[in-house]
Amino acid sequence: MNKALRRAVIAGNWKMNKNRAEARALITEMIPLVKDADCDVVICTPYTDLETALSLTEGTNIKVGAENCHWAPSGAFTGEISADMLTEMGVEYVVIGHSERRQYFGETNETVQKRVRAALSAGLKVILCVGETLAEREAGITEEVIAIQVKIALAGVSAEELSRVIIAYEPVWAIGTGKTATDEQANEVNHFIRSLVGRLYDEKTAAALTVQYGGSMNPGNAAGLLAMEDIDGGLIGGASLKAPDFAEIIRAASR
Ligand code: PGA
To answer: Ligand 1 pocket, 237 CB below 6 A?
Structure first.
Protein backbone atom coordinates (compact mmCIF):
# COMPACT_ATOMS: atom_id res chain seq x y z
CA MET A 1 0.00 0.00 0.00
CA ASN A 2 1.00 3.63 -0.37
CA LYS A 3 1.33 4.05 3.36
CA ALA A 4 4.43 1.88 3.34
CA LEU A 5 6.05 4.28 0.87
CA ARG A 6 5.59 7.27 3.17
CA ARG A 7 7.92 7.83 6.09
CA ALA A 8 6.03 8.84 9.22
CA VAL A 9 6.83 12.22 10.74
CA ILE A 10 6.31 12.77 14.45
CA ALA A 11 6.56 16.44 15.33
CA GLY A 12 6.35 17.98 18.77
CA ASN A 13 4.63 21.34 19.03
CA TRP A 14 5.86 22.84 22.28
CA LYS A 15 3.60 25.92 21.98
CA MET A 16 4.53 28.59 24.58
CA ASN A 17 6.27 26.16 26.92
CA LYS A 18 9.83 25.56 28.14
CA ASN A 19 12.33 28.25 28.98
CA ARG A 20 15.93 27.72 27.96
CA ALA A 21 16.92 25.59 30.95
CA GLU A 22 13.78 23.47 30.64
CA ALA A 23 14.34 23.04 26.91
CA ARG A 24 17.89 21.90 27.53
CA ALA A 25 16.70 19.33 30.08
CA LEU A 26 13.89 18.01 27.87
CA ILE A 27 16.04 17.64 24.76
CA THR A 28 18.89 16.02 26.70
CA GLU A 29 16.47 13.47 28.10
CA MET A 30 14.87 12.93 24.68
CA ILE A 31 17.98 12.31 22.57
CA PRO A 32 18.82 8.77 23.76
CA LEU A 33 15.14 7.77 23.91
CA VAL A 34 14.45 8.54 20.24
CA LYS A 35 17.80 7.76 18.64
CA ASP A 36 16.60 4.51 17.03
CA ALA A 37 13.40 6.00 15.60
CA ASP A 38 12.29 4.61 12.26
CA CYS A 39 10.39 7.80 11.49
CA ASP A 40 11.31 11.46 11.19
CA VAL A 41 11.45 13.26 14.53
CA VAL A 42 10.91 17.02 14.72
CA ILE A 43 10.59 19.40 17.66
CA CYS A 44 8.95 22.76 17.05
CA THR A 45 9.90 25.12 19.82
CA PRO A 46 9.40 28.73 20.85
CA TYR A 47 11.78 31.09 19.03
CA THR A 48 13.75 31.59 22.23
CA ASP A 49 14.56 27.86 22.40
CA LEU A 50 15.61 27.40 18.77
CA GLU A 51 19.29 28.11 19.32
CA THR A 52 19.39 25.67 22.24
CA ALA A 53 17.49 23.04 20.26
CA LEU A 54 19.73 23.41 17.22
CA SER A 55 22.95 23.11 19.16
CA LEU A 56 21.82 20.18 21.33
CA THR A 57 20.38 18.18 18.43
CA GLU A 58 23.38 18.63 16.15
CA GLY A 59 24.47 15.19 14.93
CA THR A 60 21.28 13.51 16.21
CA ASN A 61 18.17 12.36 14.35
CA ILE A 62 16.06 15.18 15.83
CA LYS A 63 15.15 18.03 13.51
CA VAL A 64 14.14 21.48 14.64
CA GLY A 65 11.19 23.64 13.66
CA ALA A 66 9.63 26.97 14.59
CA GLU A 67 5.95 27.49 15.36
CA ASN A 68 5.25 30.31 12.93
CA CYS A 69 6.93 32.79 10.58
CA HIS A 70 5.99 36.03 8.86
CA TRP A 71 5.52 36.37 5.11
CA ALA A 72 7.77 39.37 4.53
CA PRO A 73 11.54 38.90 4.32
CA SER A 74 12.13 41.84 6.67
CA GLY A 75 10.57 45.16 7.57
CA ALA A 76 8.36 47.05 9.98
CA PHE A 77 6.53 44.10 11.55
CA THR A 78 7.21 44.46 15.24
CA GLY A 79 7.23 41.15 17.05
CA GLU A 80 7.43 38.98 13.95
CA ILE A 81 10.14 36.62 12.66
CA SER A 82 10.83 36.01 8.97
CA ALA A 83 11.33 32.66 7.25
CA ASP A 84 14.84 33.70 6.20
CA MET A 85 15.76 34.41 9.81
CA LEU A 86 14.84 30.80 10.59
CA THR A 87 16.73 29.19 7.71
CA GLU A 88 19.77 31.32 8.47
CA MET A 89 19.84 29.76 11.96
CA GLY A 90 19.58 26.25 10.54
CA VAL A 91 15.90 25.69 11.33
CA GLU A 92 14.37 23.16 8.92
CA TYR A 93 10.63 23.12 9.66
CA VAL A 94 7.90 25.61 10.49
CA VAL A 95 4.33 25.13 11.68
CA ILE A 96 1.89 27.37 9.80
CA GLY A 97 -1.78 28.00 10.46
CA HIS A 98 -2.10 26.30 13.82
CA SER A 99 -5.65 26.68 15.13
CA GLU A 100 -4.39 28.66 18.12
CA ARG A 101 -2.94 31.21 15.69
CA ARG A 102 -6.24 31.29 13.82
CA GLN A 103 -8.27 31.50 17.04
CA TYR A 104 -6.27 33.97 19.14
CA PHE A 105 -4.09 35.92 16.70
CA GLY A 106 -6.38 36.69 13.80
CA GLU A 107 -4.72 34.26 11.40
CA THR A 108 -6.89 33.77 8.32
CA ASN A 109 -6.68 31.40 5.35
CA GLU A 110 -5.19 34.29 3.38
CA THR A 111 -2.41 35.04 5.89
CA VAL A 112 -1.76 31.31 6.18
CA GLN A 113 -1.28 31.20 2.42
CA LYS A 114 1.18 34.11 2.53
CA ARG A 115 3.18 32.46 5.32
CA VAL A 116 3.23 29.10 3.52
CA ARG A 117 4.58 30.73 0.36
CA ALA A 118 7.24 32.68 2.24
CA ALA A 119 8.34 29.61 4.18
CA LEU A 120 8.61 27.49 1.03
CA SER A 121 10.50 30.22 -0.83
CA ALA A 122 12.96 30.38 2.04
CA GLY A 123 13.53 26.62 1.76
CA LEU A 124 11.69 25.57 4.91
CA LYS A 125 9.54 22.48 5.27
CA VAL A 126 6.02 23.45 6.26
CA ILE A 127 3.66 21.72 8.66
CA LEU A 128 0.36 23.20 7.52
CA CYS A 129 -2.41 22.83 10.11
CA VAL A 130 -6.06 22.54 9.18
CA GLY A 131 -9.08 21.49 11.19
CA GLU A 132 -12.72 22.12 11.94
CA THR A 133 -14.27 23.44 15.14
CA LEU A 134 -16.84 21.45 17.08
CA ALA A 135 -19.64 23.68 15.76
CA GLU A 136 -18.48 23.06 12.19
CA ARG A 137 -18.33 19.30 12.74
CA GLU A 138 -21.79 19.30 14.29
CA ALA A 139 -23.13 21.36 11.38
CA GLY A 140 -21.83 18.67 9.02
CA ILE A 141 -19.44 21.00 7.19
CA THR A 142 -16.10 19.43 8.19
CA GLU A 143 -15.10 18.59 4.61
CA GLU A 144 -16.13 22.01 3.29
CA VAL A 145 -14.09 23.78 5.97
CA ILE A 146 -11.04 21.60 5.39
CA ALA A 147 -11.31 21.97 1.62
CA ILE A 148 -11.37 25.77 1.87
CA GLN A 149 -8.42 25.80 4.28
CA VAL A 150 -6.34 23.47 2.10
CA LYS A 151 -7.21 25.09 -1.23
CA ILE A 152 -6.46 28.62 -0.07
CA ALA A 153 -3.27 27.67 1.78
CA LEU A 154 -1.87 25.78 -1.20
CA ALA A 155 -2.91 28.22 -3.93
CA GLY A 156 0.21 28.93 -5.97
CA VAL A 157 2.22 26.09 -4.38
CA SER A 158 3.80 23.91 -7.10
CA ALA A 159 3.87 20.11 -6.96
CA GLU A 160 7.62 20.33 -6.46
CA GLU A 161 7.13 22.67 -3.48
CA LEU A 162 4.40 20.45 -2.11
CA SER A 163 7.03 17.78 -1.48
CA ARG A 164 8.16 20.05 1.38
CA VAL A 165 4.65 20.38 2.83
CA ILE A 166 3.15 18.17 5.52
CA ILE A 167 -0.53 18.67 6.20
CA ALA A 168 -1.57 18.18 9.82
CA TYR A 169 -5.26 17.50 10.36
CA GLU A 170 -6.04 18.87 13.79
CA PRO A 171 -9.71 19.00 14.76
CA VAL A 172 -9.94 22.08 16.98
CA TRP A 173 -12.18 20.24 19.43
CA ALA A 174 -9.46 17.64 20.03
CA ILE A 175 -6.59 20.01 20.75
CA GLY A 176 -5.50 20.08 24.37
CA THR A 177 -8.91 18.77 25.41
CA GLY A 178 -8.01 15.12 25.98
CA LYS A 179 -10.77 14.38 23.45
CA THR A 180 -9.16 12.53 20.56
CA ALA A 181 -10.82 11.87 17.24
CA THR A 182 -11.43 8.15 16.84
CA ASP A 183 -9.06 6.31 14.53
CA GLU A 184 -11.81 6.22 11.90
CA GLN A 185 -12.81 9.89 12.26
CA ALA A 186 -9.20 11.00 11.90
CA ASN A 187 -8.50 8.66 9.00
CA GLU A 188 -11.63 9.77 7.19
CA VAL A 189 -10.55 13.42 7.14
CA ASN A 190 -6.93 12.55 6.37
CA HIS A 191 -8.18 10.48 3.45
CA PHE A 192 -10.34 13.38 2.31
CA ILE A 193 -7.31 15.70 2.41
CA ARG A 194 -5.25 13.25 0.34
CA SER A 195 -8.05 12.87 -2.24
CA LEU A 196 -8.40 16.64 -2.45
CA VAL A 197 -4.67 17.01 -3.06
CA GLY A 198 -5.02 14.31 -5.72
CA ARG A 199 -7.62 16.47 -7.46
CA LEU A 200 -5.62 19.69 -7.05
CA TYR A 201 -2.31 18.13 -8.15
CA ASP A 202 -2.15 14.48 -9.23
CA GLU A 203 -2.37 11.00 -7.77
CA LYS A 204 1.37 10.53 -7.42
CA THR A 205 1.74 13.77 -5.47
CA ALA A 206 -1.19 12.83 -3.24
CA ALA A 207 0.19 9.35 -2.58
CA ALA A 208 3.53 10.82 -1.49
CA LEU A 209 2.01 13.50 0.78
CA THR A 210 2.54 13.15 4.53
CA VAL A 211 -0.75 13.80 6.33
CA GLN A 212 -0.47 13.91 10.10
CA TYR A 213 -3.12 13.78 12.75
CA GLY A 214 -2.93 16.06 15.78
CA GLY A 215 -5.13 16.61 18.82
CA SER A 216 -4.53 14.87 22.14
CA MET A 217 -2.35 12.18 20.61
CA ASN A 218 -0.66 10.32 23.44
CA PRO A 219 1.12 7.02 24.18
CA GLY A 220 -2.26 5.36 24.75
CA ASN A 221 -3.93 6.19 21.44
CA ALA A 222 -0.96 6.73 19.10
CA ALA A 223 -0.56 3.15 17.87
CA GLY A 224 -4.19 2.89 16.77
CA LEU A 225 -4.18 6.25 14.99
CA LEU A 226 -0.81 5.70 13.33
CA ALA A 227 -1.84 2.30 11.99
CA MET A 228 -4.56 3.88 9.85
CA GLU A 229 -3.90 3.98 6.11
CA ASP A 230 -3.97 7.76 5.71
CA ILE A 231 -2.35 8.83 8.99
CA ASP A 232 1.37 9.31 8.41
CA GLY A 233 2.45 10.68 11.73
CA GLY A 234 1.37 13.15 14.33
CA LEU A 235 1.67 16.70 15.53
CA ILE A 236 1.95 16.35 19.27
CA GLY A 237 1.32 19.12 21.78
CA GLY A 238 1.05 18.16 25.45
CA ALA A 239 2.66 14.74 25.13
CA SER A 240 5.72 16.21 23.40
CA LEU A 241 6.64 18.03 26.61
CA LYS A 242 7.44 14.74 28.36
CA ALA A 243 10.35 12.85 26.84
CA PRO A 244 9.09 9.32 27.72
CA ASP A 245 5.63 10.03 26.26
CA PHE A 246 7.04 11.57 23.10
CA ALA A 247 9.43 8.63 22.73
CA GLU A 248 6.59 6.16 23.14
CA ILE A 249 4.63 7.83 20.32
CA ILE A 250 7.77 7.70 18.17
CA ARG A 251 8.09 3.98 18.90
CA ALA A 252 4.47 3.50 17.83
CA ALA A 253 5.24 5.31 14.56
CA SER A 254 8.35 3.21 14.00
CA ARG A 255 6.45 -0.08 13.87
P1 PGA B 1 -2.32 18.50 21.91
O2 PGA B 1 -1.93 19.62 20.85
O3 PGA B 1 -1.55 17.26 21.52
O4 PGA B 1 -1.88 19.05 23.23
O5 PGA B 1 -3.78 18.28 21.81
C6 PGA B 1 -1.76 19.31 19.49
C7 PGA B 1 -1.45 20.56 18.74
O8 PGA B 1 -2.02 21.61 19.06
O9 PGA B 1 -0.64 20.56 17.80
So the answer is: yes
